[in-house]
From TrEMBL:
It comes from the Bacteria. Pathway: Amino-acid biosynthesis; L-histidine biosynthesis; L-histidine from 5-phospho-alpha-D-ribose 1-diphosphate: step 7/9. The lineage of its organism: Bacteria, Pseudomonadati, Pseudomonadota, Gammaproteobacteria, Lysobacterales. Its EC number is 2.6.1.9. HAMAP family: HisC_aminotrans_2. Residues 46-347 form the Aminotransferase class I/classII large domain. It catalyses: L-histidinol phosphate + 2-oxoglutarate = 3-(imidazol-4-yl)-2-oxopropyl phosphate + L-glutamate. This is Histidinol-phosphate aminotransferase. It comes from Frateuria terrea. It is an enzyme of class 2 (transferase). One of its GO terms (molecular function) is histidinol-phosphate transaminase activity. Pfam families: Aminotran_1_2. GO terms for biological process: L-histidine biosynthetic process.
Length: 352
């Protein structure tokens, strides 16, 4: 069974929009896209008066090398959120199909599904916030077209073992597309799922430059998947998803010097994660610090509301995650610089 048989028939048959850049790449005198002939004031050589390439070749090449995939297995867009939305629109028929998620988890999977009028099947994480692969597979019905797994999970920080990912991939063959969201993979101990792409054509992996690569403001994310899935999603991808300044920022961040700097900062974050976990667990009023493979910690407090207000009054904004199932007493604290983390501990210590 081809993975495309899981997709909507009308998307498979869709004739995509053909942009000016797609129809006539290259050339010296560009008069085919109704662009301005002049660069904007302060352009600094970015040529922002010209539409960008839909999939900039140099950026695709660099990202494919970074993630260890072939160029035809990669789609780059505006953060992981765009890829999530494209997947739901391509695979889920409104009012008929569904996605499966494991709460508490990243909320955009369900938001994109509901916008598409697709149902959301929930299989809660285990008590220790690990994925129960058996329960997930048992809950998959013919209506479920996408199974999202956040690895490491947001907002808990829990990792997902490679054995669990592969068990899900095997069990979902011919049934649904497995989408592994690896937004925080650079901070995790386990290898990513991209190495499994050539073995499972119904596997897709989400990656982003927003976290470890410090480009949240540039909105660059990737989908890694079978070449047929990438080609399908390109049919419904907007003509020019990537602004030229964002592409330039990504190329700089992914240069040899940029990669070296990113890896140094990742090491700092992982060291701070260990130290912050130990320090927080020693503070009165802290019930627990959940194990994390990400760049944040989910922390349980005796009086979570008071702690949130104390931090806010000190100018420190953390994420209130009490609305998530199983986290009614928790805050999510992003790991900052060593100085910022020390400030958090000082404020928490003052209220002890």
């Amino acid at each position: 069974m081809s993975v495309l048989e899981l997709a909507r028939a009308e998307i498979r048959a869709l004739v995509p929009y053909s942009s000016a850049r797609m129809e006539a790449a290259g050339g010296q005198l560009l008069l085919n896209a109704n662009e301005s002939a002049w660069a904007p004031f302060g352009d600094a050589g970015l040529d922002c008066h010209r539409y960008p390439d839909p999939q900039p070749a140099a950026l695709v090449e660099r990202l494919a090398a970074l993630y260890g995939v072939r160029r035809e297995q990669l789609l780059v867009g505006r953060g992981s959120d765009e890829a999530i939305d494209l997947l739901v629109r391509a695979f889920c028929r409104a009012g008929k199909d569904a996605i499966l998620v494991q709460p508490p988890t990243f909320g955009m999977y369900a938001v994109c599904a509901r916008v598409q009028d697709a149902a959301v099947v929930e299989v809660p994480l285990s008590v220790d916030f690990t994925v129960d692969a058996g329960a997930v597979l048992a809950a998959v019905t013919p209506a479920v077209k996408l199974v999202f797994v956040c690895a490491p999970n947001n907002p808990t920080g829990a990792g997902v073992s490679p054995e669990t990912i592969e068990r899900l991939a095997r069990g979902l063959a011919g049934r649904a597309l497995l989408v592994v969201d690896e937004a925080y993979a650079e901070f995790a101990e386990d290898a990513g799922a991209a190495a499994l792409l050539d073995r499972y054509e119904h596997l897709a992996v989400l990656r982003t430059l927003s976290k470890a690569w410090a480009l949240a403001g540039a909105r660059i994310g990737c989908l890694l998947a079978h070449a047929d899935v990438i080609a399908l999603l390109r049919r419904i991808l907007p003509p020019y998803p990537l602004p030229r300044p964002c592409v330039a920022a990504a190329m700089e961040a992914l240069s040899p010097q940029g990669q070296a700097a990113a890896h140094e900062r990742i090491e700092v974050v992982c060291t701070e994660r260990t130290q912050m976990t130990s320090a927080l667990r020693r503070l009165p009023g802290v019930r627990a610090v959940l194990p994390s493979q990400a760049n944040f910690l989910a922390v349980r407090f005796d009086d979570v509301g008071a702690v949130y207000r104390r931090l806010f009054d000190a100018g420190i904004v953390v994420r209130d995650v009490r609305r998530y199932p199983g986290l009614g007493d928790a805050l999510r604290i992003t790991l900052g610089t060593p100085e910022e983390n020390a400030r958090v501990l000082a404020v928490l210590g003052e209220g002890a």
